[in-house]
Amino acid sequence: MIDVEKEAARIAEQGESAPRLARDPINLPMINNWLEAIGDQHPGYTEVAPPAMVQVWTMAGLHGQRTLDDPLGQMMGILDEAGYTSVVATNSDQTYHRYLRLGEQLSVTTSLEDVTGPKRTGLGEGWFVTTRSTWWVGDEAVAEMRFRVLKFRPAQKPAQKPEPVEETPKAQAIRPSVNRDTEYFWEGTRLGELRIQRCGGCGLLRHPPGPMCPECGATKPKYLVSEGHGVIYSYVVHHHPQVPGKQTPFVIALVELDEGVRMLGEFDGEPSVGQRVEVVFTEVDDELTMPSWRPRADR
Amino acid sequence: MRIGDSLPEWHVEATPTFVISTALATRDFQDVHHDRDLAIQRGSKDIFINILTTTGLVQRYVTDWAGPHALVRQVNIRLGAPCFAYDTLKFFGQVVEREQQDLTIEVVGRTAHGDHVTGTVKIEVPA
């Protein structure tokens, strides 16, 4: 484990790096390239350089190696090792003591001012590293800069994780609410009978059951036992959300029974509308047996 | 040029060509400023403008307004949201201090993602 703070204190104690020379003296071609890219049409940069270019002169360049005593380079290396591999600049405070003239040779010295972290940022966890640089022409300080970078560990994009499939025991299945109107139905499933409510007055078949016949108003419902055969009238394939006691995806079919009523239930197979099905009974526990549907070969 | 004076709004189209040519003109060869594949690999959504360019744009914004005889003494900037390729960077500014010939201008540069840069520029204008 790298002690970032201890390493930072060690580097800060080294003080200023030795002066590092700019590759080129202040020159017009580099000024013109800069003006062209920035789009600056300021007419005054024929004898002097734009002040904001000061850092450009001493950039390390394409194959540049930082000098061994460069505090920013040392700190970057330590944070790389500690896993903070990305870098972004956050602050630059530049003070220009005077304009720089063509032909002047710059050098720069840098010291480590501050290292703080680890901080949580929008980019990921990281350390703020602050350095102070001075640019020199000979022994004259011509510009200064406080520069801060965030050295960070890129935030991991959350991977697309499938929802954990919880295997819930069948006993945890959602249980039907059984009441006086429906208890005959659940009594039937326990006995392996699929019962359809039939009006004690007019004989109308209906499902789901209710207390009063919608046709004649009689309140003395009876039932008949269905053959348990029908066709899929419609269906849904349920993917989400998870349902206790079920593994997704599962199919819920609306089956039109040969007796004429429609009944919902789980279907085991590849569903298609018009498909012939027959009832199966699955005992959940002593209290509850669920009817469901499976394909039936026509005979 | 008085306290409270606003600078005219200025828009910069940060095309990939702009991002790359300014990075190279400022001698910044960090891959995140010219190589989109590596920029994405490093957790960025695209290449983005480097800080030396932002400093240059802030200076230009102020000197375009103040005129070529204004002398730039200080550019202090703080970066927020990166300015990615294809972003439009909109600059706004206002004079917040004046002490004889010394002016302080507050500048903000915004993209659709938020403030890319906030800062102050100190200039000296001719009497």
TrEMBL record, chain A:
Residues 186-220 form the ChsH2 rubredoxin-like zinc ribbon domain. One of its GO terms (molecular function) is DNA binding. Residues 227-281 form the ChsH2 C-terminal OB-fold domain. The keyword Translocase does not apply. InterPro entries: ChsH2_C, ChsH2_Znr, FAS1-like_DH_region, HotDog_dom_sf, NA-bd_OB-fold, Thioester_dehydratase-like. Keywords: DNA-binding. Signal peptide: none annotated. Pfam families: FAS1_DH_region, OB_ChsH2_C, zf-ChsH2. Residues 25-145 form the FAS1-like dehydratase domain. This is DNA-binding protein. It comes from Lentzea cavernae. The lineage of its organism: Bacteria, Bacillati, Actinomycetota, Actinomycetes, Pseudonocardiales.
UniProtKB/TrEMBL annotation, chain B:
SUPFAM superfamilies: Thioesterase/thiol ester dehydrase-isomerase (SSF54637). It comes from Lentzea cavernae. This is Beta-hydroxyacyl-ACP dehydratase. InterPro entries: HotDog_dom_sf.
